[in-house]
Write a structure and sequence with these properties.
By secondary structure, this protein is of the alpha+beta class. The protein has a domain at 3-83 and 102-123: Nuclear Transport Factor 2, Chain: A, CATH 3.10.450.50. Helix content is 22%, strand content 43%. It contains 3 helices and 8 strands, in the order H-H-E-E-H-E-E-E-E-E-E. It has helices spanning 3-19, 22-26, 44-56; strands at residues 29-36, 41-43, 62-65, 69-73, 76-91, 94-110, 116-122, 124-132. Strands 1, 2, 3, 4, 5, 6, 7 and 8 form an 8-stranded mixed sheet that branches. The longest helix has 17 residues, at 3-19. The termini are far apart.
């Protein structure tokens, strides 16, 4: 088995999420997998269920992926996937584009059936960008209103 198998596993999980292929997404996870994101911590199976529920509410993000770096040691692998999560939000009647740059380390394991599955995903958020969709539109955000949200590992301007 090669790093290509692990790369395809990671990319298949993200593609399945973005396209709403939840049954395919579920096959990517080991039974005892753990997923830790800013909005979710739990099993891979629960992550798939919560992702489907989010999409059902109209919350949809697109993941812009960069090639993952993969290291394999026997039946275990570590893949670090650089990505940007993009979605549209409404702030006081102004449509805005929010982009979160992050790194997602994926731990994968090869099962007794010879297939690689995700054992753990952790996302490390590095930078958020918020801009109005329509150039020239004023987007007013009170920095105090951001206090309850996770901070990326970088810093927000003016804080």
């Amino acid at each position: 088995m090669s790093a290509e198998d692990v790369t395809q596993l990671v990319l298949r999980e993200r593609q399945s999420r973005d396209h709403g292929w939840y049954e395919e997404m579920a096959t990517c996870f080991a039974d005892d997998s753990i997923v830790q994101m800013s909005w979710f911590t739990g099993s891979g199976a629960d992550f798939v269920r919560q992702t489907r529920a989010m999409a059902g509410r109209g919350d949809h993000a697109v993941h812009r992926l960069s090639p993952p770096a993969v290291r394999i040691d026997g039946d275990r692998a570590l893949a670090e996937l650089p990505l940007v999560i993009e979605w549209r939000i409404n702030i006081d009647g102004v449509e805005a584009a929010l982009a979160s740059a992050c790194r997602s380390p994926y731990r994968a394991q090869r099962g007794t059936d010879g297939l690689w599955r995700i054992a753990r995903i952790t996302s490390i958020y590095e930078k958020d960008t918020l801009v109005p969709v329509l150039p020239g539109t004023r987007l007013a955000v009170d920095p105090a209103g951001l206090a309850g949200y996770r901070r990326p590992t970088g810093s927000w301007p003016g804080t």
